[in-house]
Write a structure and sequence with these properties.
36% of the residues lie in helices and 18% in strands. It is α/β, with parallel strands linked by helices and 290 residues long. The chain has an 8-stranded mixed beta sheet, with helices on both faces. The protein has a two-stranded antiparallel sheet with strand order 7-8. The relative contact order is 0.15.
Length: 290
């Protein structure tokens, strides 16, 4: 399995940011891949996916968006915004000497990818949108608003796994206790005294908790069309997702008829991309990108 090196760079406002950088296995140079996680997550979400892609000969960079994982927390919560996140990622590409990449965006990561398409379309060779699009179900939005930035105190890894299951169990009904513990290890951080805390800045919730939730906007639809009509795009959807339902996916497929589509059975928001259906779709999609 491929290992990674730690990469750091300065984002907007000179904030210190972090990513995992996996070298591709030998062979002809191929377009690198940038993996961007969801709202409350971090680069650990790609700890299985990134080495699998790297083994196919592609360099993979999995980022910690500001306020998450090992990236610094922003003293100005107003900068917890997709436009800033996109600028951070573009700064990373510039520093790493990457002119174009395949982007894999899970949930918020897909929104960031669409924002990058507005800022610098030429940086995107192809894109994978994982259970996200320009239209979002209010059911899922309301659920996320109910837990983001709040959490509850946990004392043990069993407590952490139980909490993660309590907010994600409906989306992953077949998960085992080992799956929930692995998820907890990716989602919580232990300090020097062994105390556990969610591995993100609670202030990221401000934009969601303080705003009127909207399922779509003209800008969101424009960003999606700019991306999916101009670059090879794959939509991966969890079959029981409460964020991207059949109606939302149907709009996307109609607005971008050339977009590839894969549905992951028995999974909600958002597929881990380790599922057989997701892996098959990713392998086929990446095979078409030089």
């Amino acid at each position: 399995m491929a290992t990674f090196v730690e990469r750091t760079w300065k984002g907007v406002g000179e904030l210190a940011l972090h990513a995992r950088d996996y070298a591709g296995d030998g062979g002809p140079a191929r377009c690198p891949v940038v993996c961007i996680h969801g709202l409350t997550r971090n680069s650990g979400d790609f700890e299985d996916v990134a080495p699998w892609i790297a083994a196919q000969g592609r360099r993979v960079i999995a980022v910690d968006i500001r306020g998450r994982g090992r990236s610094a927390r922003d003293p100005d919560p107003r900068r917890y915004h997709p436009a800033v996140y996109a600028s951070d990622v573009l700064k990373l590409l510039d520093e790493a000497g990457i002119a174009r990449a395949v982007f894999i965006g899970t949930s918020m990561g897909g929104i960031i990818t669409m924002t990058i398409a507005l800022k610098r379309l030429r940086a995107i060779a192809a894109a994978v949108l994982n259970d996200i699009g320009p239209m979002i179900s209010m059911t899922g939005l309301t659920r996320i608003k109910g837990y983001v930035g709040q959490g509850r105190p946990v004392e043990t890894w069993d407590d952490a796994a139980a909490y993660i299951q309590s907010i994600n169990g409906a989306a992953f009904p077949d998960n085992t206790p080992a799956d929930w513990h692995a998820w907890a290890k990716r989602t919580y951080r232990a300090d020097a005294n062994g105390r556990l805390a969610l591995d993100y800045d609670p202030a990221i919730a401000a934009a969601i908790q303080g705003a009127k939730l909207k399922p779509t906007s003209f800008l969101a639809k424009m960003l999606f069309r700019r991306l999916a009509r101009n670059r090879p795009t794959l939509l991966v959807r969890g079959a029981i997702s409460d964020i991207l339902g059949p109606e939302e996916a149907g709009y996307m497929r109609g607005a971008a008829p050339g977009m590839q589509y894969a549905e992951v059975p028995g999974v909600g928001h958002a597929p881990m991309l380790t599922e057989p259906a997701a892996r098959a779709a990713l392998a086929s999609f990446l095979a078409g990108v030089a």
